[in-house]
Amino acid sequence: MELRTLRYFVAVAEELHFGRAATRLHMSQPPLSRAIRQLEAEVGATLLDRSSAGVALTPVGAVLLDEARALLERADRVRVRVAAAAGAATLTVGVLGDSTDPGATRLAGAFRRRHPRVEVRVRETDLTDPTCGLHAGLVDIALTRRPFDETGLSVHELRADPVGALLRADDPLAGRDRVTLADLADRRWFVFPEGTDPAWQSYWNGGEPREGPVVRGVQECRQAVLWNGTVGMTLLAHPPAQGLTVVPLGDMRPSRVVAAWNAGDTNPLIRSFVRTAVDAYRN
């Protein structure tokens, strides 16, 4: 069995859908289907039940899934250890001004325990680049938040965080249990510079064009509200600075933490990073 074919099988087994698996693998569906049929011929058993209702693992397929996952992880560890021994194992991680996130802290500890000889380089970016340098080729993987232009990227969601309106503590709305976007419609908002990813700008402006002071970083957002009485969105879990408060936004979808990397990048450290991140953010 080839490792590549096993990766194909794991993708189909996890997605239980050939189309989604092909998208995840950045390939078309016909060669994926042929590869799985060839694998079934090699093992001499049916691995997947295909019907009009969908795709399901057979008992033999379930066994192979467990073994394939373990084998692929072992193969990745071999590649990483060899690279580390040669002094060539590095990973550049982009972070979006959220390096104090407890999930990221757990991830850093777990990844270091798993790969003690890998050098991790961290590149922190401001709020104007939600891909943290991925599109510019400056990082291998990013811990960031949706939405943004995902062209050419693979993205795995790690957590969803509720958001709220960032207000001055003496704002007329500050005492409410929650507010809506309509409550903030006639207010000035802090905005990101021209040229910022449109999907990213739109989300943090509540889906509407806004006017107000231009900001680039988290502290600038807070200072814009404190000094100008403008409003904006922030994470409910982020404690506001003195003189500010956060009121839950009842009609705003949560902010989603993701790991993102360049599609087709076969660096085993990236796969290991994503697996470790899923566990770190789940806990």
Characterise this structure.
The protein is built from eight helices and ten strands. The chain has 283 residues and is of the alpha+beta class. A five-stranded mixed beta sheet has the order 4-3-5-10-6, covered by helices on one side. The protein is elongated, with a radius of gyration of 22 Å. The model has no long low-confidence stretch (mean pLDDT 91).
Helices and strands, with pairings:
Elements: H1 3-15, H2 18-25, H3 29-43, E1 48-51, E2 54-57, H4 59-85, E3 90-95, H5 102-114, E4 119-124, E5 141-145, E6 153-161, E7 163-168, H6 198-204, H7 218-228, E8 232-235, E9 244-248, E10 255-262, H8 268-282
Parallel strand pairs: 3-4, 3-5
Antiparallel strand pairs: 1-2, 5-10, 6-10, 7-8, 7-9
Q: Number of helical segments?
A: 8
DSSP strand content: 15-25%
In percent, how helical is the residue content? 25-40%
Major sheet: order of its strands?
4-3-5-10-6
Query: Would you report the number of β strands?
Result: 10
Question: Element order, helices and strands?
Answer: HHHEEHEHEEEEHHEEEH
Structural class: alpha+beta
Radius of gyration: 22 Å
Low-confidence stretches: none
- The rounded distance between the terminal residues' Cα atoms is 35 Å
The average pLDDT value, as a whole number, equals 91
Instruction: Report on the biggest sheet.
Output: 5 strands, mixed
Morphology call: elongated
